[in-house]
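Schema walk-through. Below, the input block comes first and the output block second. Nothing else is stored per chain. Lengths vary across the set, and this one has 51 residues.
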Amino acid sequence: MPAAYALNKAVTPTKTQTFVSVGYHASEVLGKYTNGAASVADPSAIVQRYV
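--- output ---
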């Protein structure tokens, strides 16, 4: 969970739980498309190079 989101006092515990749950499920779905490939060590460098 991003620190800015975690430190935001306006976010209720229920919304935080929903955020974590959605992130977990999104990770599971996206993991099905990796075909066992390792994660990128520095994703920001890959994105910068692409852009």
